[in-house]
Amino acid sequence: MSYEKELHIAQLAVQRATLLTQRVFHEKAKGTLSKDDNSPVTIGDFGAQALIIHAIKSNFPQDEIVGEEEASSLRENKNLSTQIWHLVKSASLEDETSERELGGPIESEEQMLQAIDAGNSAGGAHGRIWALDPIDGTKGFLRGGQYAVCLALISDGSVKVGVLGCPNLPVDDAAPLSADIDDPSGQGRGVLFGAVAGCGATSRPLGRGALQSSQAIRMKSVPDITDATFCESVEAGHSSHGDQAAIAKALGITRESVRMDSQAKYGSIARGAGDLYLRLPVRKDYQEKIWDHAAGEVIVKEAGGEVTDAEGKRLDFSRGRTLKENKGVVAAPRAVHAQVLEVVKSVLGSKE
Ligand SMILES: Nc1ncnc2c1ncn2[C@@H]1O[C@H](COP(=O)(O)O)[C@@H](OP(=O)(O)O)[C@H]1O
Ligand SMILES: [Mg+2]
Which residues contact 136 (CB under 8 A, 6 or more apart)? Predict the structure, then answer.
């Protein structure tokens, strides 16, 4: 299967959703709520989820969707729901053909809430299931940092299509790795990564209309591991900074790691801006969510990388909404992955 249409629709849908998220990003009031797990959610998360699910359901009505958000809090908060509805209505691509391909506009506020709730699939090992994170790195989004709009198609438990919209990364694949947004006007920023299993990975500028032309991306080769650059989470609660430092030391890496929110880390190493991405469990009981990794996994693999958990197991997307069989993530160029994994195992193992 070529997944050409799936990739095209996913990229257009993500691109359209970033028009909405960028609008919220530049506004002071982001309509933030706190979810049951104490993590933040904004009007940008809800609006982007509605727009993307509407596009998927219009094109692939039989497919299931595992989306991070659900609309119950909005049904109890009419004011917030109406704010999101205004945003959703005004987020359209500046290209009629592309808009039509995405199934046209959402028709009512109620249809918007239903679209958000259509992301309630339990996931699993069979059939076609989309994994959607409308704003990954919500904390980064709120801090004015990096974030990503993430969408992947999982078929019978393996990721076939992955798309990452990263509005705050530089367009230029060769730009030095940094999470900073020097120019708040957004000039020269916004990149859309895409990959289909077996067909390679690409990047292109994130635009406002039809998709712009793309180029192939590859991870950098790392002849000497001591020259490698690590990416890690900004949030110390998401990945252990201490373990990361111990692993870097054991590998002989002296360059400071770059801290960046969201799956922009996967995109950055896939295009060779950084080399290694580790996610090192802080809490033993935490189960990683499939929407936090599906798109990044296929993009890195298609750019010449290997992605496993911290024990060397492949990420198992067939177990429902979480990666319950896995602990942590180790993403690296294929040629050095085994070497990095050995050190990860030895450093984490010595703590037990
Ligand atoms: N204790 C924990 N360990 C690992 N990841 C966690 C976590 N608590 C929350 N997360 C996830 O970390 C994601 C952000 O990752 P990163 O640190 O790489 O930016 C969050 O995504 P959202 O921002 O979509 O909620 C959330 O799903
Ligand atoms: Mg996320």
Answer: 147, 148, 149, 150, 261, 262, 263, 291, 292
What's the predicted TM-score (pTM) here? 0.97
Q: What is the pLDDT of residue 39?
A: 87
CATH number for the domain that contains residue 312: 3.40.190.80
For residue 45 and ligand 1, the question of a CB distance below 6 A is answered with: no
pLDDT reported for residue 185: 60
Partners of 150 in the beta sheet? 133, 164
Residue 91 sits in the same domain as residue 207:
yes
Nearest protein Cα to ligand 1, atom 14: 137
User: Residue 150 sits in which domain range?
Assistant: 4-217
Residue nearest to atom 13 of ligand 1 (CA): 137
End-to-end CA distance of the chain: 44
Residue 31: the pLDDT is 81
CA distance 295 to 154: 9
- The predicted structure's pLDDT at residue 209: 97
Q: Tell me the average pLDDT across 214-223.
A: 97
Residues 156 and 234 in one domain: no
Is residue 53 annotated as involved in ligand binding?
no
Cβ of 232 less than 6 Å from ligand 1: no
Q: Which of 21, 37, 39, 283 to mutate to test the pocket of ligand 1 (most atoms within 8 A of CB)?
A: 39
